[in-house]
Amino acid sequence: MATFTKSLISQQILNQLKKCIHHSIFLKIDYKTTYSESTCGQRALYQLGMTGIPIYNTNNNGCTGSATMILAKQLVESGSDCVMALGFEKMERGTLGMKYTDRVHPVDLLYKQVDKIDGFTSSAPSAQPFGNAGEEHMRKYGSKPEHFAKIAYKSYKHSLNNPYAQFQQEYTLDQIKNAPIVHRVLTKLQCCPTSDGSACVILANEDFVKKHKLENQAVEILAMEMSTDLESTFTTNSSMVVAGYDMSKNAARKAFGKVNFKPQDVDVVELHDCFSANEMITYEALGLCEEGKGHKLVERGDNTYGGKYVINPSGGLISKGNPLGATGIAQCTELCWQLRGIAGKRQVKDAKLALQHNIGLGGACVVSLYKLGFPEKSIKHKL
Amino acid sequence: MLKRRVFVIGCGMTKFEKPGRRENFDYPDMAKEAVTKALKDAKIDYKEIKQAIVGFCYGESTSGQRALYQMGMTGIPIYNVNNNCSTGSTALYMAKQLVEGGHNDCVLALGFEKMERGSLGVKWTDRTFPLDKHQAINSELYGDSKGPRAPILFGNAGEEHMRKYGSKPEHFAKIAYKNHKHSVNNPYSQFRDEYTMEQIMSSPVIHRVLTKLQCCPTSDGSACCIVANEDFVRPHKLEPQAVEILAMEMCTDLESTFSEKSSIKLVGYDMAKKAAEKVFAQTNYKPQDVDVVELHDCFSANELITYEALGLCPEGKAHELIDRNDNTYGGKYVINPSGGLISKGHPLGATGLAQCSELCWQLRGEADKRQVKNCKLALQHNLGLGGAVVIGLYKLGFPESKMQSKL
């Protein structure tokens, strides 16, 4: 059974949604946020109506948004015709902290690895695995600090055209390179901020799409796969693996294994650039280029308009922001707009196949592939 | 769409304990114990698990991975879920649906809670509290009360039942009396003490009709249930122990929770009623066919009103069911043979899975001194304010194979 998504973008659709909720027996809603008291999902959704539908609250660190979506997708596949996936985050300022100090922290073993391989420092903890990964990439493959900075440069440039982005500002390569150092190759302008925000997508099956005449906007989820950590995360000597490389690679392998497409067929990508270094290594994990050649892809400009792929047209986490529960869903939203031809000034020409990558240390990674469900029925809007 | 049959093939749990009583017993340790027991019960390796849902309320994100990675790092999808006190059955309900969907033949549902001592608190004080509307309605009806919010809400529901239907404090106390008595036979129970009615009624007043011995404690603990489809059960020869989930439904609050200005409705009566109706509608059974029940007695008052919500008796007649002793051995139903939340304990993430475990043991004839004779049909009710309720109906999947395995 194919699964489709449509994004909530207008009051018209909101009204349609309310109608659906009231009339559909099988509508179920998933709600995810990482930092909150239990049943925040209900508190948020009861405002739309108290229809008694099942509501689940889930979390998976940075991967929370797409973990929500993969649950919603599976619920549609197991019989519910229309399921909502909602994510939000109201974050505290400053770097990510801990609420529970009387018990083992879920990422304690991960940071033991960080310490073992690179030595734990006084830099922001969330930046360390990724800064170390960047350092390893340079040592192993010959990439340079400029390559990492260029990724951030590209993403800020993209965000100028995104009214949803937390920052809509360009920076020169020098400004990015010379910004305060956060950890090793990562300067401040190569790190995503903390953010408040929310995003929502609605998933449905083919019967629902046809009944509601939504073929023209229905984006099909061709594949959506989750991987958690493999043994390598704790046995490896590689900082890149500690930063989630093998999880990303495993999820991508599973996703592409479900379709007749290859990474090289992809047109547009939204991936998890919590830090520029993660974007670099993720090019390789996703198979967009060969292992060790991420910086070559950057040099060729194959990650932006005019190049082979447009990666993070939204501005990515670095510029768009990263409210943990919402990010994965915002990525999907951007890709849907791209495929539907309604991405405004960010529009990637002829975007037909979209790839999403969302990761959280702890951990989990979800990789997804999308294309228009009924391309012959689609209406490409032009500004 | 033809729904696949779904079975619980293995269960395991820790003995529930007062928070912090066991040394070096953090949530990964609790989880490891429960999961190891469940895998052993199901006679399978962790490698056979295709996805896992982990329920807990209090903990940093990805605590589920931290707990399960000890069993093996197989890369399977792991989700962390919560729904206040119905967290455990939320995990179970999600697992059931993942198996029903067809892509997974075997999914693990784990719940744990490492609780702080004292009544439930608030970690995030800079944002709307999810139960703010519940508290506002409660204040409208009864004025502001000082003290822990859960006993206040349920104590007021008890008060309303007495006023509306003529039940008496003795009826509520008798529920607690029964549950404490049941727990004497439960080695997993946090408390295993009997009390007289006198002792229960004269224990310190917590709120209105609720005295201390009528309230569940906070607890540390974990429970795990493994869910599988028929294609998995058969090659593994698990027919004798496979318990079928005949029907399972979740319901969240209806408009009436806030609009009817009733304490009974405020604590989830209507969502329990609706979920129960949906469950029975999917089968050929009626509530009166049920033999054994595990329901959410966070407070005796909730057990009382839940008899009515589940349809075990007509609305307003729960105290008559109690008078008839139709909630214990020798009566029409045995309700909370495990000792319930009141005596067994209530680690939020684990409770729903511990309820399922007890019912599976009952149906499998493995409940030892707690065994309900000839029990064939089991009913579960797990509720969390905020909220959500999950109702499940169970029976042996292959009763003829159970008979054969006894010969």
TrEMBL record, chain A:
Domain Thiolase N-terminal: from-to ranges: 36-207
Domain Thiolase C-terminal positions: 246-361
GO molecular function: acyltransferase activity, transferring groups other than amino-acyl groups
Residues spanning the signal sequence: none
Entry-linked InterPro entries: Thiolase, Thiolase-like, Thiolase_C_2, Thiolase_N
Pfam families, alphabetized: Thiolase_C_1, Thiolase_N
Domain of life, source organism: Eukaryota
Xref: NCBIfam families: PRK08256.1
PANTHER family noted in UniProt: ACETYL-COA C-ACETYLTRANSFERASE, NON-SPECIFIC LIPID-TRANSFER PROTEIN-LIKE 2
Protein name per the record: Non-specific lipid-transfer protein
Source organism of the structure: Polypedilum vanderplanki
Automatic annotation (TrEMBL), chain B:
GO cellular component: peroxisome
UniProt keyword annotations, A-Z: Lipid transport, Lipid-binding, Peroxisome, Transferase, Transport
Pfam families from the UniProt entry: Thiolase_C_1 (PF22691), Thiolase_N (PF00108)
EC class: transferase
Occurrences of domain Thiolase C-terminal (ranges): 267-384
Keyword presence, Ligase: no
EC number: 2.3.1.176
Entry GO MF terms: acyltransferase activity, transferring groups other than amino-acyl groups; lipid binding
Entry's localization field: Peroxisome
Entry's transmembrane regions: none
BP GO terms, sorted: lipid transport
Domain Thiolase N-terminal: 6-230
Gene3D superfamilies xrefs: 3.40.47.10
Name of this protein: propanoyl-CoA C-acyltransferase
Organism the protein comes from: Polypedilum vanderplanki (Sleeping chironomid midge)
